[in-house]
Amino acid sequence: MTKLGNLALLAIRLGVGGTLIAHGTQKLFGWFDGPGIDGAAEGFKQMGFPDPKRAAQMSGLAEAAGGASLALGLGTGVGGAAVAGNMAVAASVHAPNGFFAQGGGFEYPAVLGLTGSALALGGPGTLSLDAATRNVFNKPWMRILALAGSLGFAVYTASSRQAPPVPVETTTTVE
């Protein structure tokens, strides 16, 4: 790969990884005006996840740790797979709203997930900690196993969602 190609991979890793770190830490710690774990859990409850606090924790961890892995280019196959699986679940939540993000669609998580998958499969390039460590944490078999595991996780998690609870309307009569 050319020097410019490796620089392009670094830019993609830093942009996508940094975005994911920010989203994950919003959920986990409330940073960047995020909801924190309790607020994120409430959102996951409204989306129909059976254990919303655990779902919020796992989603935040996949985003923050997966994003850090991509940004650093360390364990890129596993980090990219974590991002891909998490974003597949997010895309399934948004799919009923169509494609475009401005309508609540799955466009945004799809782009992040596909980028995570591509980096997991293709690797981080030479401007990475994986390259500096001779890919000790980024072997081809690790990439394939991590992507297969994340696909299984995504299918299981998405299928475990229940229909979100319908708000109960109270009516009062004035006599």
From TrEMBL:
Keywords, in A-Z order: Cell membrane, Membrane, Transmembrane, Transmembrane helix
Main localization of the protein described in the UniProt heading: membrane
Cell location: Cell membrane
Keyword Cell membrane: yes
Keyword Cell division: no
Membrane topology term: Multi-pass membrane protein
Single GO cellular component term: plasma membrane
Superkingdom of origin: Bacteria
Pfam families: DoxX (PF07681)
Family: Belongs to the DoxX family.
This protein's name: RpiR family transcriptional regulator
